[in-house]
Amino acid sequence: MSNVIVRPVNLYDLSRTALRDLLHGWGYSDYYAGLIWSALYRELAEGTEAFATVRPDLGDKLTSEAVAGSLPVRSYIDSADGNTRKYLLGLEDGQAIETVLMYFRGRATACVSTQVGCAMGCVFCATGQMGFRRHLTPGEIVAQVIHVMRVLRERGETLRNIVLMGMGEPLHNYDATMAALETLMDHRGMAIAPRFITLSTVGVVPGIKRLTQEKRPIRLAVSLHGATDEDRSRLVPPARRWPLAELIAACREYTETLGRRIFFEWALIDGENDGPEQAHALGRLLRGLDAHVNLIPLNPTIGFDGQPTEPAAVKAFQVVLAEYGLPSTVRQRRGIDVAAGCGQLATMTPIP
Ligand code: SAH
Ligand code: SF4
């Protein structure tokens, strides 16, 4: 007797082609695959609802062999200004992830996780402080967006931006992340335009090279935080593995091959990386690149006692960057009071 447990297939894990192949295997035509795809990603139907829209025999087959793995909301918390809601979503194995919904005046943005925890260990990041638990599946990444879209639909709103800036390093979970993005961008489903999707990486050089080779259409942001290997590796341990010379070469190849601007993120930490000499070093490092710098005054986390840069020093940093022709923006601080800001996502602390 075999004791192999056959798990139902999670339809959110499947590409449109894979769904079609599954249904072909069961003897159903493309037409039915199209109906299911549209129920899942246009109507955002819950699993059994989606199955009910097709003929009964196929509905029964799907009910017994498949699920559409929505993620249950374990809890949520709103920022005091009412503009940010952070969800704790449960996974099948009992773990949990955080997903953040930001309402920027009609430009709702979902901040999505790609891993439970993170292996990269950046010292100022709550996700890094919790360590790596596991990769998310494509379906678990897709389900976060579906959740947010359903919430917005109830409010009569739509989702505009997706940022892969939640828990985890997306290029450390490359295949699942790309599979999820394919589904999110699919023109017969959610049809999210690639220019509204930003992937943020700590600087995984092989991943950036793959994005370039595969001509992935999304926007790319690279977290720098230091403009020399020595400065950077104090904050971002992967800097030792992928030195700046290699990282910037990969970024240059990305912008030149794809003809696209690249974004750099810099968490401004008082007295650590926010002085004029660091701004000059950053200006020199990025000279000649079609680049934009996003400055993020440090958000507090339990495991790191640095302070955010004062507004006047932020401005001074920007002025130096401008001397090098480098445009920069200061990222609006959102949801800091409920630990929903950049780098504050973790699931080790219970949410009230
Ligand atoms: N792993 C990816 C994406 C998730 S983190 C990456 O590191 O890029 C998203 C952004 O938040 C990154 O730029 C990261 O450096 C930044 N960040 C992490 N901790 C932060 C903190 N405490 N304050 C401000 N920004 C932080
Ligand atoms: Fe991971 Fe990004 Fe946090 Fe670094 S900043 S630990 S790469 S999630």
Overview of the molecule:
By secondary structure, the chain is an alpha/beta fold. Helices cover 36% and strands 19% of the residues. It has helices at 16-25, 30-41, 47-52, 56-65, 126-130, 138-154, 174-185, 205-213, 229-235, 244-258, 276-285, 311-323; strands at 9-10, 66-67, 73-78, 84-90, 96-102, 108-111, 115-117, 132-135, 159-164, 197-201, 219-223, 262-268, 291-297, 328-330. The strands form three sheets. The protein has a ten-stranded mixed beta sheet. The protein has a two-stranded parallel ribbon with strand order 1-2. Strand 13 (291-297), helix 12 and strand 14 form a beta-alpha-beta unit. Helix 1 crosses helix 2, helix 6 (138-154) runs parallel beside helix 7 and helix 8 (205-213) packs parallel to helix 10. Iron/sulfur cluster binds at residues 118, 120-122, 125, 127-128, 168-169, 202, 223, 343. The site of S-adenosyl-L-homocysteine has 17 residues, from strand 10 and strand 12.
Quantity of strands, as a count: 14
The profile of the biggest β sheet is: 10 strands, mixed
| Overall pLDDT | 93
Uncertain parts: none
Distance between the termini: 47 Å
Spatial strand arrangement across the major sheet: 3-4-5-6-9-10-11-12-13-14
